[in-house]
Design goal:
454 residues, Dihydrodipicolinate Reductase, domain 2, 14 helices, disordered N terminus
């Protein structure tokens, strides 16, 4: 598997980080000099320069309610920072003002980047979710509005922390956006409105699929030792439960969240199946297939099916069945198509409503909504919703990984924190998850390991 450009070795990392760390002491002086006090430009910093972080920064720079300027980048990998700076500078020109002394590398780089901002500016948190509560807490301390990618938590303890932080942000009137962009898709919003107005009657069953081949860092071979185990796990964070909640949380949260949003409530329990196939020399913690039955307090069900196997039937869709009709949504993002039908059969002759063939990008719409709320000082706090959605997703994952029925409250109160010292990680720290002598990591064992996921 192609790991991309070779990351810096430990000695190279330290050589590159040292001058940047020294320069960071001047960042608080340099940035205000660039942007006058009376300027109404919203300044943005990006923490986590992977593909999704770069995309979020591009959306920030494309908002209708500008002006917006990107003034700092932060990541633990120098090549990520360099690539993001080059891509965004080429596309957005002077709106990207990230010279070398505001490109920060290391585990404390998030602090150095946020220190470049004034209260009321924006920080994008797009690191692996394990670091979310740490960085969100510092952003609140600095008085910054926050856009954070999903999922925002990976276990019960971090969810409790994020819920507390959500309350603190709201008390400070800080706006928080979460990258569950389906909620900002106009077509889905109209479909939800009609469902809430009763077009389907009472919702009884929902069914959702996310089935495709392996993507991102879903599976990983043993660390080839071009970097430390800690950096390897962060580099390939989808493979490790502590870093991302694994493929289940990172990939499937969109489908699960969308259905819960349409239903208007969170499920109270989950039971699930999962299996691992065709693994070869792969050492990640993910299962290849997941099937989860979520139950709501009124008895309604959500059946979710996820698969990451090449050569199989692929499907990305959600269907909602009510006592009067059925609604469906197919495809991710702006490729989605929403429809509502009379009766229980989604056939052309029963069509009541459908979304436009081409819809606006929900990735951009969520940013337009977020910045508009900042400009107009509208209430806007998605942090609690993001934490609860992440928890519900984790509930289904834990049910599959343990072989037990897991309730919402049990997931929230679960004492197993995957990375309890993530706020203290440094370059030479051991990883939260240790490999065995063969480089393998612990995988879920349903029915055997039942009090925790591994």
């Amino acid at each position: 598997m192609n790991l991309g450009p070779r990351p810096a070795t430990r000695s190279e990392f330290l050589r590159q980080a040292q001058p940047v760390a020294v320069a960071s002491a001047l960042a608080g002086v340099v940035v205000p000099a660039v942007h006058a006090q009376e300027d109404n430009t919203i300044r943005v910093v990006l923490i986590g320069c992977g593909g999704r972080g770069t995309g979020a920064a591009a959306n920030a720079l494309s908002v209708k309610h500008g002006p917006v300027k990107l003034v700092a980048l932060a990541d633990v990998f120098p090549d990520h920072v360099t690539k993001t700076a080059n891509v965004l500078k080429k596309k957005f020109g002077e709106a990207v003002d990230v010279p070398q002394d505001r490109q920060f590398i290391g585990f404390d780089a998030y602090r150095q980047a946020m220190d470049c901002l004034r209260p009321g500016d924006i920080v994008i948190l797009a690191t692996p979710p394990a670091f979310r509560w740490v960085q969100f807490g510092y952003a609140i301390e600095k008085g910054l509005h926050v856009f954070m990618e999903k999922p925002t938590t990976v276990d019960g303890p971090t969810t409790r922390k994020m819920l507390t932080l959500a309350d603190e942000a709201e008390k400070k009137n800080l706006k928080t956006g979460v990258g569950l962009m389906s909620r900002h898709c106009p077509a889905r919003q109209e479909m939800r409105k009609q469902i809430r107005d009763g077009i389907l009657g009472d919702i009884t069953v929902m069914r959702s699929y996310r089935m495709h081949g392996p993507i991102a860092s879903f599976c990983s071979p043993a660390n080839p030792k071009q970097m430390s185990d800690l950096l390897y796990q962060i580099r390939r964070f989808h493979s490790f439960l502590w870093a991302s909640g694994g493929c289940f949380s990172d990939f499937n949260i969109h489908n699960i969240d969308e259905c819960c949003w349409m239903k208007g409530s969170w499920p109270v329990q989950a039971q699930a199946l999962g299996a691992r196939h065709y693994r070869g020399d792969k050492v990640d913690q993910n299962l290849d297939t997941y099937s989860v039955e979520y139950t709501f307090d009124d008895g309604a069900k959500l059946f979710f099916f996820g698969r990451c196997i090449d050569g199989c039937y692929e499907d990305f869709s959600s269907t909602i069945y009510g006592t009067r009709g059925v609604a469906s949504n197919t495809g991710p993002g702006q490729a989605s198509r929403a429809q509502i039908f009379q009766g229980t059969k989604p056939a052309a002759g029963n069509l009541l409503w459908k979304s436009p063939t081409r819809v606006a990008s929900p990735y951009q719409q969520e940013w337009d909504d977020f910045v508009d709320a900042i400009r107009q000082d509208k209430p806007y706090n998605e942090a609690r919703m993001g934490a609860e959605s992440s928890l519900v997703t984790s509930m289904g994952r834990m049910a599959a990984h343990t072989g037990r029925v897991i309730t919402y409250d049990e997931m929230l109160q679960c004492p197993h924190e995957f990375a309890p010292h993530v706020d203290k990680l440094a370059l030479d720290s051991p990883p939260p998850l240790l490999p065995d002598a063969a480089g393998r990591y612990p995988i879920p064992q349903p029915g055997i390991v039942t009090a925790r996921e591994y």
